[in-house]
Specification:
The chain is of the alpha/beta class and 243 residues long. The protein has twelve helices and nine strands. Strand 1, helix 2 and strand 2 form a beta-alpha-beta unit. Helix 2 packs parallel to helix 4 and helix 4 runs antiparallel to helix 11. The longest helix is centred in the first third of the chain and has 16 residues.
Length: 243
């Protein structure tokens, strides 16, 4: 990153988002968080490790092969990461240059600012499997209305960057070559905000999210144990392996 202001660059902590979410990749997210320099960091920058993909959400292969149905620990870890984004004393910024699906939208929605390129796309795929985005629902509701969430789940439609901007899921859409300048412009705007204001505002806005998240997590665990849904994931995982 070639930011002009070196002091501003030092205030940024980059977290690399994995292409899929499973126990190992979610644990890695927490490990990256633990390396934050508490004294100087003001901004958390969430970026993908892939060029044309931000995050697909749950690792289909891991779900299909998880025969003991022990999903709870990974779910708790992911919920904990989203809570860190919601409640941290830093301003979190997602930079998206590709597709985002399922649980990946939870990371996006939990971010304080979302910047996307024109090539980005967004999709809630849970309805295709007989699921709902229960774990990330409270995050989604901070950005979009319940009616929009219904449309996204019921249709599994892929939303373009401009459509995501219109519904409030994204804050700004820019050309690929302008993304870094766009980020720097926002950093300058936010840099004067005192950390205590960030902490207090997030504390007030984040009330009553825990109950909904816990209910969503229990529902997802229950559904993933059902034979019919498990078979759907196994069939899809097999399809990807054969490609």
């Amino acid at each position: 990153m070639n930011l002009v202001n070196n002091n501003l660059e030092k205030a940024i902590h980059i977290i690399e988002i994995p292409t899929t979410l499973n126990p190992n990749t979610i644990s890695d997210l927490h490990q990256q968080w633990e390396t934050i320099n508490l004294d100087v960091v003001r901004f958390i920058l969430l970026k993908s490790r892939a060029n044309n993909l931000f995050c697909r959400g749950m690792d289909i292969g891991w779900i299909a092969k998880n025969d003991d149905n022990s999903f709870s620990e990974a779910m708790r870890l992911f919920v904990s990461f989203l809570e860190r984004l919601h409640n941290c004393p830093y301003i979190s910024i997602s930079m998206i240059g590709g597709s985002v699906e399922g649980g990946g939208l939870g990371i996006v929605a939990a971010s304080d600012l979302v910047l996307a390129t024109e090539h980005s796309s967004f999709q809630l795929t849970e309805g295709l499997f007989g699921l709902v985005p229960g774990i990330i629902l409270s995050s989604l509701l901070t950005r979009v209305s319940p009616q929009i969430i219904k449309k996204m789940v019921f249709s599994a439609k892929t939303y373009s960057a401009s459509e995501a901007l219109n519904i409030g899921l994204v804050d700004e859409v820019t050309a690929v070559e302008d993304l870094e300048n766009c980020l720097y412009s926002w950093l300058k705007q936010f840099n004067s905000c005192q950390k205590q204001s960030v902490i207090d505002l997030k504390s007030l806005l984040g009330k009553n999210q825990t109950l909904l998240t816990n209910r969503g997590m229990l529902l997802l665990q229950e559904r993933l144990r059902q034979t019919e849904i498990k078979e759907r994931f196994k069939n899809l995982a097999y399809y990807f392996e054969m490609e």
